[in-house]
What does this fold into?
Amino acid sequence: MKAVVYRGVEHVAVETVPDPKLVAPTDALVRITTAAICGSNLHSYHRETPNLAGAVLGHEGVGVVEDVGRGVTRFKKGQRVFVPWRPACGQCWACLHDQHSRCTTVTAAFGSKDLPGSQAEFVRVPFADVGLDLIPDGISDDDAIFLTDIFPTGFFCAENGGVKPGDIVVVMGCGPVGLMAQMSALLHGAALVLAVDRVPFRLEMARQLGAVPLNDTQVNLKERVLAETGGRGADVALEAIGMDGSALLAAIPLVRVGGTVSMVGLPTEEAYAFPIRTAFSADLTFKIGLCPAKRLMPRLINLIRQGKAKPSQIITHRLPLSEGAHGYHMFANREPGVMKVLLRP
Ligand SMILES: [Zn+2]
Ligand SMILES: [Zn+2]
It folds into this structure.
């Protein structure tokens, strides 16, 4: 089959790789109909990641069940399914406490050396009864693909931040996850969402979603947030960038006394210099972590089916899988007009 394979810094290639096969009785094989490139794919794109050499990439996929092992009871051939970003066993302590993203039995996410990813024609899904979810009628691939990672991630960020109706919320980052966090803050009833980025096209997309865009190379963020909040500071800041931590450091002073900073951006460093005195002086609450996509999925499905959320509006490109390398290149370079890039096998 064809798949997007990691070959090193700024080098992915669409190659022919062995077809995946059922290994355990609890496995399923899914024929991918739509995959997506995630911002977190770019971490390894920009930095040498030796443990990914030769790996099939991708952790956002939807498709159709092609085959199931004899231990799979919930799914059968032909059903449309979500393949959320990582599988889980359903039996360990973390899984039994709704923390499937911290499953201790399955520790690999899709698109790693141990678990080939979904930017491919087919993917093997371990513990399929737990890892897969049915796509209900009325949800297109274009919306469904967002439920496998970044819509739950943005929603988790807003929920973890405790966003309440009437709140004023700052969101650091207007990439795909940042836009999902902005959409989610509005769904939680935020009165005003201030969306921070430096790329004009990304700021314009935030504006179209209902946020007020702020280019932090052109405005003084702290002054602007204080002006919008009667001098208090934002109720909540949502951090959707991660990386070297500079966005987190910029967010902390923007929050009011008793406010919350909620972070889902993937850190690239082992440790940051955390402004602990600023946090202490503000009685700040800091929340961080990986989204439990499975737990949030039923509510997000309802929001999409009722027309309250339309994550597919941020799709800018639908490319054939064969153009995967081109998709990575334009997303990584934040080319004008590029936001969410889908790949169709
Ligand atoms: Zn992702
Ligand atoms: Zn588990």
In short: The first helix runs from residue 41 to 46. DSSP finds twelve helices and 15 strands in the chain.
